[in-house]
Design goal:
Structural class: alpha/beta
Bound molecules: 6-O-phosphono-alpha-D-glucopyranose
Strand order of the largest sheet: 3-2-4-1-10-9-11-15
Radius of gyration: 25 Å
C-alpha cells in the first residue's frame, strides 16, 4: 500500500528520502517519486517501477534540498504511470498521500469549473488544487491545509511542502497511519516506524484528526479541535539493522527461518518464570464470555479460523469467525458478553479496523493481537497482546502468522484453564509442546532441499489443491494462499472430506494435490481421501510424519516429512513446510518473492 515520507532539516535530505523509500518498498508499490523545494521552486522526480529507477533518475538529474517528501504508490485511482505517481503538485504546493479521498469526483468537478487543470487520474490531485485555492486567498500554509482538509471525505495521511515556505513541512492524518520522528537537526514524518527506522530512535504516532507543522527544530501538533497537543513519545523498536535481509536471499526466507525464535519469544512473553501461563498478561474472565467473534483479513484470518478449533475444543466457548471485509457490512447480531478478537500483523488494515469499530459499537470487548504495537488497531482495543515477530517485510506473511497462532493457542489454553475444561496434564503437555515447537520447526526446515525438488516438479502446474481436516483445514487455506500470492499458480484450500462433493472432478495426472495428513484421530479419514485421489491418477503430495509416511507414501507422488507433535501445535508446525513449498515454486518461476505483483503488505484502503 502507498507509503509516505517527509523530511526537513539542516542538511540535504534527498538521500534520506530515497533510503526511507527503500525501507517502504515492502508495503508493495508500482511507482515512486519525490519532491523538494529548491530556490523557491518545487522540483519533482517520478518513475514507474522500483526505487532504483527513481535513484537513477536522481543520479542523472540531482536535487539538493532541506525539505522534501517522497512516496511509493500502490495504484487505486488510475493505472501505474508517471503522471499518476506522487508527489502531485501545483506551482505552489506538492503533496504525498496514503488513503482514499471518497468525494474526489465532486471536488474535481468544482475545481475544474474554477479553472484548475488536472494532470493525473488520481483522487489525490484534488487536494493539491484545494490547498492551492486556499493559499490564493492569502492564507498561511497551515491555515490553507486545515481549511482544505475540512472539505475532504475519506481517509488520508499527507506530507505537504510549499514553494514559498521552505522552512515548513505539514502532515495530516485521518484513517491512515502517520508517524513523526526527530534526530540531529532533522524532523521526519512517515507511514510507519520502519520508514523512520534509520533516522530516529523515538517516534510519535499521530491520532485521527491531527495536523502537524514541522520545522527544522520543532514539531507542533493540532488535534481535531484545533488545540495544540502533545502526543506520547515511543521508542522506535525497529532498528535500521533489523530491516536488512542478510544473509538470506529474500526477506520471506529470512522470516521463515526466524520463526523458531519469534515463536519462542512470543511464548515466553506469556509465561511466568515457573512455567505457568501468565494470567496477568491476559486480563479476560473467560467464564463470563458467552461467545467469541474473530475478525481479520488474509493470512491473519486463517490464524483466527485455526483458533476456532482450539477455543471450541479446549475451552468449550462458541466461536464465530468472519473475514473483516464481509463482517463490516453484514450487520451481524452480536452476543451479549461477547469478546471480539481482532488479528492483524500491521494493525492498520482498513477492513479490520472498520469491522472492529462495528463490534465495539455493539458493546463487544475488543482483544487485539498485533505485531505493530502502536498501530491503530492496538490503540483502539481494550486488551492488546503483541506477537513478538519483529518487523515482517516480505509481503507474504509467515512469522507473523505462526506467532499469531502461538498467542491464540495460549489464549485458548488460558480460557480452558480458567473454565476448568482442560486437565492439568493436558495443559502441561500442550505448553511443553509449544515450548518444543522451535526445535521441531528447525527440523521441518531441514526438509527444504527435498521440498525444492518437489517445487521443480510442480512449478508449471496451472492449479493446485490443498486438503486438510480439522484445525489443519485452515492451514490448507493458508498453504494455497501462499502459493497463489507468490508463485501466481491458482490454488484452492479445501476440507479433505468435501473433496468428493466437487473438486474431485478436477483430479487428473497434472494437478498437484497437497494433503495434510498427520497421524492423528482423523488420519484414517484423510487416508481414504488420498486413496480416492490416487484411484484417479491424481498427483498427491503427502505432508505427514514418519508414521503417516510409512502407511501412505506408496499412494503419493511425493512426500514432505514433518516431525510428529502434540495435536494442538500441528497447525503451527505444518504451515512451515507449505511456506517453503510456495517459496521455492515462486523462485523457480522467476517471481519477485518479497514484492509479489499487485499485492500490498498493509492494505489501508477498502
Ligand atoms: C494483506 C497482506 C497479507 C495479510 C493481510 C492482512 O493482504 O498481503 O499478507 O495477511 O493484508 O494484513 P494484517 O496486517 O491485517 O495482518
Amino acid at each position: 500500500m502507498c507509503g509516505i515520507i517527509g523530511a526537513i532539516g539542516n542538511k540535504n535530505i534527498v538521500p534520506t528520502l530515497i533510503e526511507s523509500l527503500k525501507r517502504l518498498e515492502y508495503r508493495g508499490y508500482d511507482s515512486a517519486g519525490i519532491a523538494a523545494v529548491v530556490n523557491h521552486d518545487i522540483q519533482r522526480r517520478r518513475t514507474v517501477g522500483k526505487i532504483s529507477e527513481l535513484a537513477n533518475s536522481l543520479a542523472s538529474s540531482p536535487i539538493e534540498s532541506n525539505v522534501g517528501i517522497g512516496h511509493t504508490r500502490w495504484a487505486t485511482h488510475g493505472k501505474p504511470s508517471v503522471a499518476n505517481a506522487h508527489p502531485h503538485a501545483s506551482d505552489t504546493v506538492a503533496l504525498v498521500h496514503n488513503g482514499i479521498i471518497e468525494n474526489h469526483s465532486s471536488l474535481r468537478h468544482d475545481l475544474e469549473k474554477k479553472g484548475y487543470v488536472f494532470s493525473s487520474e488520481t483522487d489525490t490531485e484534488t487536494v493539491v488544487h484545494l490547498i492551492t485555492d486556499e493559499l490564493k486567498k492569502g492564507k498561511t500554509p497551515l491555515s490553507a491545509v486545515k481549511d482544505a482538509l475540512k472539505q475532504l471525505e475519506g481517509s488520508f495521511a499527507f506530507g505537504i511542502i510549499f514553494k514559498d515556505s521552505p522552512d515548513t513541512l505539514i502532515g495530516a492524518k485521518k484513517g491512515s497511519p502517520l508517524a513523526i520522528g526527530k534526530k540531529d537537526g532533522c524532523v521526519f514524518l512517515g507511514s510507519d516506524a520502519i520508514a523512520l527506522s534509520a533516522e530516529t530512535n523515538d517516534v510519535i504516532y499521530l491520532e485521527d484528526g491531527d495536523v502537524v507543522e514541522l520545522n527544522e527544530n520543532s514539531i507542533t501538533i493540532y488535534d481535531k479541535n484545533d488545540k495544540i497537543v502533545e502526543r506520547e513519545l515511543h521508542k522506535n523498536v525497529i532498528s535500521g539493522d533489523s530491516v536488512g535481509k542478510d544473509p538470506y536471499a529474500h526477506f520471506m526466507l529470512k522470516e521463515i527461518y526466524e520463526q523458531p525464535i519469534a515463536i519462542s519469544k512470543t511464548f515466553a512473553s506469556l509465561m511466568t518464570s515457573n512455567r505457568n501461563i501468565d494470567a496477568a498478561k491476559i486480563p479476560v474472565d473467560w467464564s463470563r464470555i458467552s461467545k467469541i467473534t474473530i475478525l481479520a483479513c488474509g493470512t491473519a484470518s486463517y490464524a483466527g479460523l485455526v483458533s476456532k478449533y482450539w477455543f471450541e475444543q479446549l475451552a468449550r466457548i462458541p466461536v464465530e469467525y468472519d473475514v473483516a471485509s464481509e463482517f463490516r457490512y453484514r450487520e451481524a447480531a452480536m452476543a451479549k458478553d461477547g469478546l471480539t478478537i481482532v488479528i492483524s500483523q500491521s494493525g492498520e488494515t482498513a477492513d479490520t479496523l472498520a469491522a472492529m469499530k462495528y463490534a465495539k459499537e455493539q458493546g463487544q470487548k475488543i482483544l487485539s493481537i498485533v505485531n505493530v504495537l502502536h498501530s491503530s488497531i492496538a490503540r483502539n482495543s481494550d486488551i492488546v497482546i503483541p506477537t513478538l515477530a519483529g518487523a515482517e517485510i516480505g509481503v507474504a506473511s509467515t512469522k507473523a502468522f505462526t506467532t499469531q497462532l502461538t498467542v491464540l493457542l495460549m489464549l485458548a489454553l488460558n480460557a480452558a484453564q480458567n473454565k476448568n475444561t482442560i486437565s492439568r496434564n493436558a495443559l502441561q503437555e500442550t505448553l511443553a509442546a509449544i515450548s518444543d515447537l522451535p526445535a521441531k520447526i528447525e527440523a521441518a526446515l531441514q526438509e527444504s532441499d527435498s521440498i525444492k525438488e518437489i517445487a521443480e516438479k510442480i512449478k508449471s502446474a496451472n492449479s493446485a489443491l490443498y486438503l486438510g481436516r480439522g484445525s489443519l483445514f485452515p492451514i490448507a487455506l493458508e498453504g494455497a494462499l501462499k502459493l497463489k500470492e507468490i508463485s501466481y499458480i491458482h490454488a484452492e484450500g479445501y476440507p479433505a472430506g468435501e473433496m468428493k462433493h466437487g473438486p474431485i472432478a478436477l483430479v487428473d495426472e497434472h494437478m498437484p494435490i497437497v494433503v495434510l495428513a498427520p497421524s492423528d484421530n482423523l488420519f484414517d479419514k484423510t487416508a481414504s481421501n488420498i486413496q480416492e485421489v490416487a484411484a484417479r491418477n491424481g498427483k498427491v503430495i503427502l505432508v505427514s510424519d514418519t508414521e503417516g509416511y510409512k502407511k501412505l507414501s506408496d499412494k503419493a507422488a511425493d512426500s514432505i516429512i514433518v516431525p510428529s507433535a502434540n495435536k494442538n501445535v500441528l497447525p503451527i508446525l505444518y504451515v512451515v513446510s507449505l511456506q517453503i513449498l510456495a517459496y521455492w515454486c515462486a523462485l523457480k518461476r522467476g517471481n519477485d518473492v518479497d514484492q509479489p505483483r499487485n499485492l500490498a503488505k498493509s492494505v489501508t484502503v477498502e
